[in-house]
Every structure is written in structure tokens, then in C-alpha cells.
Automatic annotation (TrEMBL):
<dbReference type="GO" id="GO:0033396">
    <property type="term" value="P:beta-alanine biosynthetic process via 3-ureidopropionate"/>
</dbReference>
<dbReference type="Pfam" id="PF00795">
    <property type="entry name" value="CN_hydrolase"/>
</dbReference>
<protein>
    <recommendedName>
        <fullName>Beta-ureidopropionase</fullName>
        <ecNumber>3.5.1.6</ecNumber>
    </recommendedName>
</protein>
<dbReference type="GO" id="GO:0003837">
    <property type="term" value="F:beta-ureidopropionase activity"/>
</dbReference>
<comment type="similarity">
    <text>Belongs to the carbon-nitrogen hydrolase superfamily. BUP family.</text>
</comment>
<dbReference type="InterPro" id="IPR003010">
    <property type="entry name" value="C-N_Hydrolase"/>
</dbReference>
<feature type="domain" description="CN hydrolase">
    <location>
        <begin position="99"/>
        <end position="369"/>
    </location>
</feature>
<comment type="pathway">
    <text>Amino-acid biosynthesis; beta-alanine biosynthesis.</text>
</comment>
<dbReference type="InterPro" id="IPR036526">
    <property type="entry name" value="C-N_Hydrolase_sf"/>
</dbReference>
<dbReference type="InterPro" id="IPR050345">
    <property type="entry name" value="Aliph_Amidase/BUP"/>
</dbReference>
<keyword id="KW-0378">Hydrolase</keyword>
Length: 417
């Protein structure tokens, strides 16, 4: 819906001041890409897209034709479906290493006031056709959004939402294992983990389910926000799993969960451990982070010579009891709009258009992993980095008597005669 704000001029005329679109759209369009495409001349749109999305091997990203069954599922269940292809140069000594990867973004399925079991079951039911569409499209690795089994209730600081937490072999894992087996697919499942062996502590965890239905391993979120409504340390603290890279049948993958994308060294560590694809399952809202969203993951892909898949949930989630942000403003019952806009970034600075800002969606991309090494060879970031110097700086910084390396102008504080 469109909300119009009017103001009167000095002569009494009413003019439109601005429009706020309460459906989460961008001026009535699903994404910035759609807005530009519909309002620019074709030649202008082509040039703007080149500047915004980059080029892959000197060319615009190719689109991939959807399977009939995936298209039918997207139409029947009303989710955005897009597919692209990142290419690498043909090598003489290595065959192409193409892997098909999928990202799913979605809104919750029932109001937050519904019984928890009903909410969880409804989300499973909503995701089933989207996962089937990924399977029908031949997706090899699929990643879901952060805390996909529940509303993102961590703003409320109410402990009852802890009921959604589950063990690594819990209900959601069992739900996904059947798809992993059916479609020969690796699935990354970000959940709230209940650590049965350590006092039932909670963690924000991403499980990696192998294409044989086995649990390959897990990673726990390294950085926990304490920003505005994102009071997540009420529920879980910083993870203790380091920066693991999981070697799967389709490539080496890692998971940088949500807030970790704001920390460049977090991205770096996954690269140092050999990641070829890093997923960033997230839950973030427009007012807080949207200008940063198209930049951080793309920069990480460039700086670390790997692919990044960024996923953000969709919709506005309203909770029964109002909560405050600790900023003196009035209590409110929602975070704001989760703006979706999931996308892929490549090490050559190219990226896909994003999924819808206000609809569920499945984004599929073919990634030639050979591109990772080719960009390492081209730019030499690993070779030219000064890790020894950085390590020395960090070691000094951690000492209680650390002093910044600042050289002041000797004339800066000299009194004039």
C-alpha cells in the first residue's frame, strides 16, 4: 500500500511531500533493479546496471532458464524465482568447477500470537515448495535464512521464545534431511541451537547437512549485536567454533552469520581457511542497515577471492507486547521491515540483482569455483598482504599498555609568537 503525505503551500495549494510504501516495496516496485529497469531508457539501464552490478568476465551475467516444475511452484506459491550464471575463464589444466547454489528468503507464515507449534509447522509447510523448486532446478547447495524456524523475536527479550531452540538433530534437521537425500543437496540450516551437553545453553548456529542426509558439522555465530532492538545477547552469546570451512561434495563452504558481516577480519578468517563460498544468513531491517547491505558482502567477496551468498528475511513481524530500543523513543511492537534483497557476489566484483524486497524468494546461481583462484592470481591479495605486520599490530593492541602509533606535527601545538 502507498501512504501519501501532503502539505499546504502558502497559496493554499496541497502538494505531495513524499510517499511511503507500507508494503515494503521500493516506490511500488519489488526491488531497485525493477524500478530502474521500468523507468530508464534501455541504454541508460544497461549502463547503470554495469556500474551497480559489475561485469562477469567482461559481460553482463547470463540468466538461467527455470525448469517448468520450479516455475509452476513459484507461480502457485507466489515466490520470486531468479537464476543467473557466473562464469570463469576456460583453463587448460583444470575443468570448470560449476556448482549450482540456492538462497531462500521468506516471511513467517502465521502471526506471532499463534501457538508456537503451529507457527513452526506453518513455516515448514511454506518452505517445502521452495525447497522442492530448488531441488527441481538441480541446486547442489541450498542456504536458508537466519533462525528460519521462528519469528526473529530477540528484540522482545522475552524468554518464552527460547522454546523454539532445538538440538542439532531436532525437528528442523529431520525435516531438511529428507530433502538433502531426495535431491542430493547440501543444506545450510541456521537455527537456534539448544546445547544439551552444556547445560542446555543456547547458540545461534548454522548446521551443514550433507547431500547424504548426514550432519557434516556446525558453526556458531561469532559476533552478537547489541544495537537498538537487536538485543540478542539476552538469548545467546558469541560462538566458540572459530571459522570452520566445510568440505562438501560440491565445494568448500563457510557461514558468516548475520552481524559477522560487519567485521572484516571475520570474513578474512573464513578465506584463510580456504572457503570458496561463504553464506551470510541474516535478519536485518531497512532503517538500520539497508545502505550497507549491497556493499559489505560484495566487498568481502572481492577482498577474499570467494563467492558470497547473502540472505535476508522478508516482512514485518509484530509481537504481542511492545518493547523499547533504549533510545528514549516510544515502545513499539515490531522491528521494522525485513527487506529481503538476497543476492550473490563474486570475487570479480560482479553480483546478481537482488530478490524482491517484499516477497518470499528463491535465488539460484551457477558458480564456477575456478574463478576464485583466477582472481587470486590476478590481484595477488594473498601474496601482497602483510599478515605478519597485521599480527604484530593486533598483538600490541591487545596489551593493556597499548599506545596508538600516532605521529603529531611538532608545530601543531606551538604557540604563535
Amino acid at each position: 500500500m502507498e501512504k501519501v503525505h501532503n502539505m499546504k503551500t502558502e497559496n493554499g495549494e496541497v502538494k505531495e511531500e513524499f510517499k511511503a510504501y507500507t508494503d515494503g516495496s521500493v516506490c511500488g516496485y519489488e526491488s531497485l533493479h525493477h524500478l530502474l529497469k521500468e523507468n530508464l531508457k534501455p541504454q541508460h539501464f544497461q549502463e547503470v546496471s554495469r556500474l551497480l552490478l559489475g561485469l562477469n568476465g567482461g559481460k553482463v551475467l547470463d540468466t538461467v532458464t527455470h525448469s517448468e516444475s520450479a516455475t509452476a511452484l513459484s507461480l502457485e506459491h507466489d515466490f520470486d524465482l531468479q537464476a543467473f550464471c557466473f562464469r570463469a575463464d576456460r583453463e587448460q589444466l583444470r575443468e570448470p568447477r560449476v556448482v549450482r547454489v540456492g538462497l531462500i528468503q521468506n516471511s513467517i507464515a502465521l502471526p506471532t500470537t499463534a501457538p508456537f507449534s503451529d507457527q513452526k509447522t506453518a513455516i515448514f509447510k511454506k518452505l517445502e515448495p521452495m525447497i522442492d523448486a530448488a531441488g527441481a532446478s538441480g541446486v547442489n547447495i541450498l542456504c536458508l535464512q537466519e533462525a528460519w524456524t521462528m519469528p526473529f523475536a530477540f528484540c522482545t527479550r522475552e524468554k518464552r521464545w527460547c522454546e523454539f531452540a532445538e538440538s542439532v538433530d531436532g525437528e528442523s534437521t529431520q525435516f531438511l534431511q529428507k530433502f538433502a537425500l531426495k535431491y542430493n543437496m547440501v543444506i545450510v540450516s541456521p537455527i537456534i541451537e539448544r546445547d544439551i551437553n552444556h547445560g542446555e545453553s543456547l547458540w545461534n548456529t548454522a548446521l551443514v547437512i550433507g547431500n547424504h542426509g548426514n550432519i557434516i558439522g556446525k558453526h556458531r555465530k561469532n559476533h552478537i549485536p547489541r544495537v537498538g532492538d537487536f538485543n540478542e545477547s539476552t538469548y545467546y552469546m558469541e560462538g566458540n567454533t572459530g571459522h570452520p570451512v566445510f568440505e562438501t561434495a560440491f565445494g568448500k563452504i563457510a557461514i558468516n552469520i548475520c552481524y559477522g558481516r560487519h567485521h572484516p577480519l571475520n570474513w578474512l578468517a573464513f578465506g584463510l581457511n580456504g572457503a570458496e563460498i561463504v553464506f551470510n544468513p541474516s535478519a536485518t531491517v531497512g532503517e538500520l542497515s539497508e545502505p550497507m547491505w549491497p556493499i559489505e558482502a560484495r566487498n568481502a567477496a572481492i577482498a577474499n577471492s570467494y563467492f558470497v551468498g547473502s540472505i535476508n528475511r522478508v516482512g514485518t513481524e509484530t509481537f504481542p507486547n511492545p518493547f523499547t530500543s533504549g533510545d528514549g523513543k516510544a515502545a513499539h511492537a515490531d522491528f521494522g521491515h525485513f527487506y529481503g534483497s538476497s543476492y550473490f557476489s563474486a570475487p570479480d566484483a560482479s553480483c546478481t540483482p537482488s530478490l524482491s524486497r517484499n516477497r518470499d524468494g528463491l535465488l539460484i546461481s551457477d558458480l564456477d569455483l575456478n574463478l576464485c583462484r583466477q582472481l587470486k592470481d590476478k590481484w595477488g591479495f594473498r601474496m601482497t598482504a602483510r599478515y605478519d605486520m597485521y599480527a604484530e599490530t593486533l598483538a600490541h593492541y591487545l596489551k593493556p599498555d597499548f599506545e596508538p602509533q600516532v605521529i603529531s606535527d611538532p608545530l601543531l601545538h606551538k604557540k604563535s609568537s
